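Response to reviewer comment R2.3. The reviewers asked that we include at least one raw input/output pair. We reproduce the pair for Amino acid permease here without editing.
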Amino acid sequence: MSTFSTAPKRTLHTLDIFFLVVAAAAPLAAVAGNGALGVLLGNGVGMPGSYLIAGLVLILFAVGFVRMSPHIQHSGAFYAYVRHGLGPYAGGAAAFVAIVVYGMMVVGSAAGFGFFANVFFAENLHVDLSWVVWAALALAVVALIGYREITLGARLLAVFLTLEVLILVVLTISVFSPGSPAHVTYTSFSPSTIFSGSFGVGLMFAFVSFLGFESAAIYSEEAREGHKTVSRALIAAVIFIAVFYAIAMWSVIVAFGDDKVVAAAGENPGTLVFRAFGQYTYPVFTVAVEFLMVTSALAATIALHNAASRYLFSLGREGMLPGMLGNLHPRLQSPHIASVVVTVITSLLVALFAIGGADPLMTVLSSTFGLAALGIILLQAATSVSVCVFTWRTSKEPGSTLNLLIAILASAGLVAAAVLIIINYSTLTGSLGFLDYAPWLIPIAAVIGMIVARGSKQTGKMAAVG
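Raw output as returned:
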């Protein structure tokens, strides 16, 4: 039998959570996808600067997040913070929005794995299987890992993430090496360049590239030193992602040249990074980066599945969803039932897309991550506002004025990012017909969350905490 509502084992170190968080952001896919689109549709050569600006806003957000974290040791992450600052109904809304967006990201990431696996194995090994078969394989692997203890997934992600980083380091070194034909300029970091073109669109793609970093707090109950471990991992992850993305994207721009990179992206933004590898590295590295796009998608699917499972586990434990979701495996101490439910739901959604003949990249991945981008940014903004309220309430503590200013700046930046995504939603996802109405799932989920919070037997407890 399963054990009900016992705390998970504290097995995760700072590096474990760091790998879980950065893997969810999928660095290679983010640079190859969002970065290239930012160059084409956004501020062109200034895209690396956009990464630094988004990173600065998210570092401010992380500071407030960390400031509040000693008071929130909870697998619910966003909703626990929102609940603590803004009350139980806001917390319920945040919880159900989080379930929707993380579930959608699992679906999109599995489809992305299916697409990249189909391309890689068909071109290099002449194994031509449908993306649906590859996506099903990914979901099976993720289900197995998600069912077991979290450290297994963290170790696997450490390997995948290290390879992703190393392959981009290879490109960077090749482009900037003394014998390289590339002409190195620093235009990408000039304010006049960063704020040129469609700066708002470029900044939107930069923010989207950070999706998943906030999941660090989900693992607070499984961290060795609780909030201390989470805080270190979160700050390290944000700084690493911002700096690494900026340098990697800069190397791609320098590879083509400031005056040619936008036109190169216009030919096919999805292959921009691959073409840079083709020009500046040996062919084996081009094959390697294509393979690592596959493993990057798998790593992201594992990390996002783990995050979604822990949201369901947390809500089941608090009575906002069926109690069995709050059970832990008696031996592995993993949220095994929540993990199985995530697997079943995401598998059904992938199957529905497949039956409808959807394109894995342009329809499934685009629609799910577009929805997730909007939902995550709104949740981050709500969490940041919650930090503002919390800091105001604890204004007698040392340093509270500076902390409040930081939280206000982070909130303003995140609200601006949310507005950018809403205004440019069709640019982010493309025209998808019926799926253009997917953003309505966010307010619907929020209303359901408030209704459940109101009717939950835990409402009194939640109100007391908030």
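Residues 1-5, 457-466 have pLDDT under 50 and may be disordered. The beta strands are 3-4, 327-328. Further pairs are available on request from the corresponding author.
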